[in-house]
Amino acid sequence: MSASSLKSETIELMGKLGVSQAALEGGDLAVHSPTNGEKIAEVKTSSAAEIKAQIEKAHEAFKVWRTVPGPRRGELVRLLGEELRASKEDLGRVVSLEAGKIPSEGLGEVQEMIDICDFAVGLSRQLYGLTIATERADHRMMETWHPLGVVGIISAFNFPVAVWSWNAALALVCGNSTVWKPSEKTPLTALACQAILDRALAKFGDAPEGLATMFVAERDGGEVMVDHEKVALVSATGSTRMGRQVGPRVAQRFGRTILELGGNNAGIVCPSADMDMAVRAIAFGAMGTAGQRCTTTRRLFVHESMYDDMVARLKKAYLGVTIGDPLKSDALVGPLIDKDAADNMNKALESAKASGGTVTGGERVDVNGDASYYYRPALVEMPEQTGPMFEETFAPILYVTKYSDFDDALEMQNAVGAGLSSCIFTLNVREAEKFLSAVGSDCGIANVNIGTSGAEIGGAFGGEKETGGGRESGSDAWKAYMRRATNTVNYGTALPLAQGVSFDIE
Ligand code: NAD
């Protein structure tokens, strides 16, 4: 496919999704497809004044939306889910075009959006509070959950659409308004999502204007949202570097954050592991999405008794995996997002070699010429956990280290800054349960006989330590999008004070 035909495919697809050609031309932000490096659009970024006005409008919309009953708010998200179902193929293709994901992963991301909409619709009737036993006679104590305000969503390039929907679907049923700043690397998918949402809003009929909007901007646009006092919650997904900046700035004004930051995820392969299962899970976890998932498997600790077998099988997988243009082939590994990602990968591999690592793969593969960055995933045997293993390099590099003692493996797995996802392969119940226990994995996600990546939306998603501590998606993650009020009601005729305190005035 030539450059011009990729651009025309973009225009055609975006048109089908509801974004006009005019919105893709003449703007100040160039959009390049990582599949071949070609410029496929020029979109307009918003100024600080425009962003502030959008936030003010969202705040006005919030004042109306918070009074709409939860199940009615759920209806909007149900309509969004329907629109997403209708647009799944096209939006999935734009994800492949703009973020370079292979087709099944592009479509999978849209499916995740549909799933969270379904979840949120049910949730819209389940925003429960507790009733609590009170120490005073003729009193009732309870919790009420109220809408919070404007939710500012900042998202990363690697899940350009799903992360928005995790936040927006929950925020909207919880009675909030939303303003979204997508990654500057993936504005087209965001424009498409807005067009899809606008159709749902039109069908819904009477939602307040400015309820859920987005803007295109670089980091400075995100900062405007971070600092704005009318943004009650900033839900920011991206690198730990970004979180270190965003967290304190929002805290400074006592705003709330959900931080979903980097991962440096590990797996442990024990002597009893089902090797076929482990190899498949690790291959997907480490090479899938070209290593550009926050939950990508980056470190592997293999028991010495299984090490040679595991490394031999992984080498075969690494040397055999298909690498190619996700728009034209059924290859399993697509491109890195850009040159910076490639430079970071090369740097990490050099550093690993300097630390005694032996690299299999990791070389550049010419798929579509110099302007795109396709790499064979790298398997790096490391004599011990050292050097680049302590960092998240957002590229397909898997470090493998041998262990002999289970507790040492656990310690190595926990000895990094990030705490997002982890897994163990074992048929030994003692090892499995210890891994899941208070002295086991310190991550927000700990799996047994399942890899580190590919979470379902029903569970709470997020991690500890430098991953930021936030939770999104399922379980009770919705509570972060609401404010809690404790209500005590006295239906008696006396006024007993708590803790038996007396304060009698005549
Ligand atoms: P990034 O940190 O470079 O950018 C993420 C977003 O933050 C972008 O929209 C960017 O414009 C914005 N941003 C950056 N600095 C900002 C600031 N100071 N104020 C306001 N906004 C700011 O990340 P990326 O390269 O797009 O994505 C890759 C990273 O995201 C990896 O570290 C990955 O692990 C992480 N990630 C985490 C999760 C998770 O759920 N934990 C999910 C996806 C990606």
From TrEMBL:
Coiled-coil segments on the chain, per record: none
Subunit structure comment from the entry: Homotetramer.
Aldehyde dehydrogenase domain ranges (all copies): 28-484
EC numbers for this chain: 1.2.1.3
Name of the protein in its database record: aldehyde dehydrogenase (NAD(+))
Transmembrane stretches, start-end: none
Keyword annotations of the record: NAD, Oxidoreductase
Organism name: Maritalea mobilis
Pfam families attached to this UniProt entry: Aldedh
Family: Belongs to the aldehyde dehydrogenase family.
